[in-house]
Design goal:
378 residues; Rossmann fold; 3 domains; six-stranded parallel beta sheet; five-stranded parallel beta sheet; 37% helix; globular; binds 1,4-dihydronicotinamide adenine dinucleotide; binds the ligand O=C(O)C(=O)[C@H](O)COP(=O)(O)O; pyridoxine biosynthesis; Erythronate-4-phosphate dehydrogenase; EC 1.1.1.290; NAD
Length: 378
């Protein structure tokens, strides 16, 4: 069995070679010659999987080690009888931690407490729901917008987008990219929405570039210097708008989901789906793959305030480490993808063991996702 895997998929060779011969290939573009005899194809978001790619090929299964699936023509795969699996939720924690790092940075720069701000979350799925939970644990009020879940009768409470825009100090997008249909998200943040943002609002897009109309955003930023903007995703990628990058407060190369844990979960989820597909079901425990984290443990004295939380968060991941390199190389062809391919290891907050002598701090840090314990001071 020949299994093609994207070269940017940690642990893929190790896992998939249990079931066949593995060939690692670049994802943008996939070398046509390698596809010829392939039985399975494991991709990331940069590979468009459709009839043009696979129509005349022998591939019987496609896996994408990603949460988003807008790069996959699922209708074609179903028509062609090709098995398919994505990796829902694999990197949701990473995106939440990216958003927190960005908010803590802006809060320090502009001198505000997150607890004095209302955060609107648009798209309350794997990312949005985890973000809500952690923000509320920290005492931040959230407003939720998720029309598909609202129409399904699920508990929110869910609000209309217009209400969220009118009331939220921060609006953060975590929807799939739907180009059409009843829940279309293409240019959900259009010029009208952007102009309606509250004074001094913060806009965050860490889902898909075209959910925010980037040309409109650039125009609006030309007229509104009160807004702060965090963009991890761009319209288009990899050839993002350089003038827009100059205007945004934080700009990164579509890496919000790039913790080692998030990527490894993506690989294990599609591997498990593939193993089921071929009738050789296998399960993989993540901790058998991951190396020990860079920072083992730390002691925290006293209660937890925002400045201390920021220091802890940024011990594990500080979004500035991804903003600066993008600004340096964005104008050079190929560098957006190179930054992503040669991504420096990043871990989740759970990799940091925090020993607290304040019980409240320990409980709060646990709720926020750190590996925290309480030990009374002697
Ligand atoms: N920047 C990055 O590295 C990453 C980006 N993503 C992107 O973020 C998206 C969200 O990720 P997850 O939360 O894991 O996906 P998910 O599928 O678990 O959640 C998406 C939520 O959006 C809601 N939704 C759909 N249409 C909507 C609309 N018109 N308005 C408001 N809400 C709507 C859905 O009902 C669902 O609850 C993914 O589809 C992917 O495109 C995901 C992971 C990493
Ligand atoms: O999971 C998703 O959806 C994402 O956006 C991924 O984090 C993007 O990473 P690549 O698949 O482009 O490496």
């Amino acid at each position: 069995m020949k299994i093609l895997v994207d070269e940017n998929m940690p642990y893929a060779r190790e896992l998939f070679s249990r079931t066949g011969d593995v060939v690692a290939v670049p994802g943008r573009p996939i070398p046509q010659a390698e596809l010829a005899e392939a039985d399975a194809l494991m991709v990331r978001s940069v590979t468009k999987v459709n009839e043009a790619l696979l129509g005349d090929k022998s591939v019987k299964f496609v896996g994408t080690a990603t949460a988003g699936t807008d790069h996959i023509d699922e209708a074609f795969l179903a028509r062609a009888g090709i098995g398919f699996s994505a990796a829902p939720g694999c990197n949701a924690i990473a995106v939440v931690e990216y958003v927190f790092s960005s908010l803590l940075l802006l809060a320090e720069r502009d001198g505000f407490q997150l607890t004095d701000r209302v955060v609107g979350i648009v798209g309350v799925g794997n990312v949005g729901a985890r973000l809500q939970k952690r923000l509320e644990a920290w005492g931040v009020r959230t407003l939720l917008c998720d029309p598909p879940r609202a129409d399904n009768g699920e508990d929110g409470p869910f609000r209309r987008l217009e209400e969220v825009v009118a009331k939220a100090d921060v609006i953060t997008f975590h929807t799939p990219l739907f180009k059409e249909g009843p829940y279309k998200t293409y240019h959900l943040a259009d010029e009208t929405l952007l102009n309606a943002l509250k004074p001094n609002a913060i806009l965050i897009n860490a889902c898909r570039g075209p959910v925010v109309d980037n040309a409109a955003l650039l125009r609006v930023l030309g007229q509104r210097d009160d807004l702060s903007v965090v963009l991890d995703v761009w319209e288009p990628e990899p050839d993002l708008s350089l003038p827009l990058l100059e205007q945004v407060d934080i700009g990164t190369a579509h890496i919000a989901g790039y913790t080692l844990e998030g990527k490894a979960r993506g690989t294990t989820q599609v591997f498990e789906a593939w193993s089921r597909f071929i009738g050789q079901q296998q399960q993989v425990a993540l901790d058998t793959l991951l190396p020990p984290p860079e920072f083992g443990r730390i002691t925290l004295h006293g209660p937890l305030d925002q400045a201390t939380l920021k220091r802890l968060v940024h011990l594990v991941y500080d979004v500035r480490r991804d903003d600066a390199p993008l600004r340096k190389v964005a104008a050079i062809a190929g560098e957006f993808d190179r930054l992503r391919k040669q991504y420096q290891e990043r871990r989740e907050w759970s990799s940091l063991h925090v020993q607290c002598d304040d019980a409240g701090a320990a409980t709060l840090l646990q709720k926020l996702g750190f590996d925290a314990v309480y030990h009374a001071a002697r």
